[in-house]
Design a protein that fits this description.
about 250 residues, alpha/beta, five-stranded mixed sheet, about 20% strand, globular, disordered N terminus
Length: about 250
């Protein structure tokens, strides 16, 4: 009886989550394919009997509102890039930030020092971890151009690059690949190096630590169930992606 009550915890329901429109992770405008992370989180919670609501917000507003406890969770920060949140153990994906340049550019990224003297454009508060600190420490020689608002970001930021107003754009490879498939960017650009692959997990607000721990346990249990049943693999396959190894945490 106690175990069933602990599983339900009606005072914690529903789980409220916010996300930005960042396809293929969360796709606000696509009712059939809502994004692989939205599908994973939704089906994991459903398997645990946990109702949830999802509200779309621009990235910066979603960050702040989750920090303040106005939402329980945020889709989807990198674990290392956003220490202001707590996280379940289970990943909901992995992403890699890459540098994109005009096709005729000879520049490549290998180390942070390669950015010295360059103009770098990216979505504001993307969460690059150690690279953020490096760019801040070298702001006199690295010009950072931050775009606020993710609506039409891919089109806007690559037009900016094509016009010669930036030397490189930092964007996740999955979003760039999706933009290519959707015709939002073309062969005028190329990849010029990448940062290490990073774990994505639901960012849980620290405003109520006990509530966050309970939600984390439900997500971990639900995602493990999706993996065991084969549903995780099937969800990812719908987006042309493959399942990550169990030990990859």
């Amino acid at each position: 009886l106690h175990a069933r009550w602990e599983r339900a915890r009606p005072e914690y329901l529903p789980f409220t989550v916010t996300a930005d429109d960042w396809c293929p992770q969360h796709c606000q405008a696509n009712p059939r394919h809502k994004g692989y992370i939205v599908d994973i989180v939704g089906q994991a919670l459903q398997s645990e009997g946990v109702p949830y609501t999802i509200v779309y917000r621009p990235w910066l507003r979603a960050l702040r509102q989750t920090e303040l406890g106005q939402f329980d969770g945020l889709l989807t920060p990198t674990v290392k890039g956003y220490p202001q949140f707590s996280y379940p153990q289970e990943a909901v994906g992995y992403q890699q930030y890459c540098f994109y340049v005009n096709a005729d550019s000879p520049w490549t990224y290998k180390t942070p020092a390669d950015l010295l003297g360059k103009r770098v454009a990216h979505l504001k508060e993307s969460g690059f971890g150690e690279l953020d600190a490096y760019m801040a420490a070298n702001k006199k020689t690295i010009s950072v151009l931050e775009f606020a608002g993710n609506q039409g970001l891919t089109t806007r930021i690559f037009r900016f690059l094509a016009a010669g107003r930036a030397d490189t754009v930092i964007m996740t490879s999955d979003v760039y690949d999706m933009s290519r498939r959707m015709g939002e960017s073309d062969g005028s650009f190329k990849r010029a190096g990448c940062l290490p692959t990073e774990k994505l997990a639901v960012g849980l607000s620290k405003a109520d630590p006990e509530r966050a721990r309970w939600i984390a346990a439900r997500l971990d249990s639900g995602i493990a169930r999706l993996r065991q049943s084969g549903r995780l693999k099937a969800i990812l396959a719908e987006y042309g992606m493959t399942e990550w190894p169990v030990a990859r945490r």
